[in-house]
Amino acid sequence: MNYDSRIEPGQMTAGEPETYEAGHNPLTGDTEQDRRSRRWIWLVAIVVAMLVVGIWFVVHDGDKGVSEAGKDAAQVPVVTVVVPGRSTVAGEISATGSLAARRTMPVGSVGEGGEVREIRVEAGDWVKQGQVLAVIDRSVQSQAAASQSAQIQVAAADARIAQSNLDRGLKLVDRGFISKADIDQLTATRDAAVARVGVARATLGQLRAQNARLDIVAPAAGLVLERNVELGQVVGGGTGVLFSLAKGGEMELLANLSEADLSSLSVGVEAKVTPVGSGRTFTGQVWQLSPVIDTTTRQGTARIALPYDAALRPGGFASAVIESGAVVAPMLPESAIQSDAKGSFVYVVDDTGKVHRRPVKTGLVTANGITVPSGLTGTEKVVLRAGGFLNDGDKVKTRLVSATAK
C-alpha cells in the first residue's frame, strides 16, 4: 500500500525520544557551543606557537652572543709580565785596550861609545839596579886612565920636593941666610905642586867615570823587554835604545773609554783584566785617567796597573771590566726592551689589561739583565716577551712571574 508518512517539525513518533536541539547541525552533529570551543582552542594554539617561536629566536640570539663573546675572549693574547722593582747593581764598564809596561825604561849608550864586546842579558831576564847589560871595548880608555894615574904620582913627588924645600927655607930664615921673599916663593911652589896632585887625581877620576859609562847598565831593577844590540856593533850616544826594561816588572792596560765612561771613574777603582788567549783574569787598579780626550775618536785612556805575570805581554790585546759604583734602578731582561727609530721602549700593562708603550733609557748591561735608570719606577707590569707582536692599546691577559724567575 502506497502512502506518505510525513513527520512535521516538532512532532515525534510514539516511543521516540527527542533528538535535535536548537542550533543543532543535523549534518555534522555539532552544536554552536562545540564550534565556539574549537575556535578558542585554535586561538590558544596559535598564541602558544608564537610564544615558542619567539623564545626560540631569543635563545638562538643569546647563544650567538655568548659564542661571539667567547670567540673574542679566546682571541685576547696572554702575555708574561713582571714587576721589576728596584735593584742595587754594581756599576761596571767594559773596555778594551793594549797591554804595556807601566814604566818603560829605554837604555842606551851614555858614554863616548865603542865596540860591543859582551852582552850579558836577554829579553825576559830580570835585572838589578846597576847590573851590567853589555860591555863596550875600553882598551884605549884604560890606557888613558893608567897614564893619568902615573901623572898623579909625578905630581905627588913634585909636591913632596916642594914641601921639603919650604921646610929647609924656614930653618934658614931665622939665621938670616935667606930672605922673607924666598920663603914666600918656596911656599907658592909647594902649594902649586899640591894643587897639581889634586888636578891629576880629579882627571883620573873623570877618566874612570867615563870608562864606567862605557858599560850599559840597568838604571833600576826590572824586566828586560827588548834587546836591540849585537856583539861587535859600534854604539855611541846617537845609536838609540839598546835595551828596553819594565821597571819592577809592572804592567798596565791602556783601556780606551768614551767621555761619559771616563767621567764616571776615579783613580783607585778595581778592574778585572783578561788578556786575549790566556783565559785568565787579573785584578788591577786604575792608577791614572787621561786628562785629555782624543778629538778624532772622542775617547780617553784609563791606565790600569797590573802586577807582573808571564801571561801579560806588552803589546797584547786585553779586555777589562771596571767598577764604576753602585746603581739603584729597575732591571729587565733584554727580551723586554724594544728599540726603534724613536729609541728604546717597553710595553706596560695597565689595570684594565691594555698595553701602553713607555720610552725608557737603558743603563748598565750585566749578566742578570739591563738596568733602566729612566722611564720606570719599578712598580709597573712590564711585558717580558712578545713585545714585538703588540701595539699600543692592545687588550691582553697577563701572567705574572716573579722578578727572580724572569
Automatic annotation (TrEMBL):
Pfam families with a match to the protein in the record: Beta-barrel_RND_2, BSH_CzcB, YknX_C
Transmembrane segments: 40-59
Recorded superkingdom: Bacteria
Residue stretches making up the CzcB-like barrel-sandwich hybrid domain: 114-239
Family of the protein in this entry: Belongs to the membrane fusion protein (MFP) (TC 8.A.1) family.
Alphabetical list of NCBIfam families matching this protein: RND_mfp (TIGR01730)
Protein name: Secretion protein HylD
Protein's organism: Novosphingobium barchaimii LL02
